Amino acid sequence: MYAQVTRFKIKPGQLAAAKQVRDDVDPMIRAVTGIRQHLTLLDEDGVGLVIAIREGGEPSAETRVQIAEIWDRFAGLFEAEPQREQFEVFRDVSID
Predict the structure, then answer these.
(1) Whole-angstrom distance, CA of residue 59 vs CA of residue 43
(2) Domain parsing of the chain, residue ranges
């Protein structure tokens, strides 16, 4: 399993628009090939993280297209291009 962590900052005054896009892309996120879990974290200053847990190593071309289409929906709402990092999941403790 791998985790893609994406850091972003929403422009001042764009939080409501970002929340609407967030809700609109939910079905797109659920359709991403290999996705197991998706978390979006946001602080009071509009700084956020997306943590996407997925199966496999490098995402396929199809998966990269799916992910790009989701992020494209947020165009103009961020102060800068989101920064992405990929990690191998070292430990997964799920508590149900």
Answers:
(1) 28
(2) 2-88
What's the pTM? 0.88
On the 0-12 / 13-18 / 19+ scale of CB atoms within 10 A, 54 is buried
**Tokens representing residue 39 in the block:** 């978390």
Burial (0-12, 13-18, 19+ Cβ within 10 Å), 67: buried
Q: Give the residue from 13, 3, 24, 12 showing the smallest Cα distance to 74.
A: 24
What CATH code would you report for 2-88? 3.30.70.100
- What is the per-residue pLDDT across 49-63, written as a single tens digit (0 to 9) for each? 999 999 887 888 999
Distance CA 16, CA 29 (A): 19
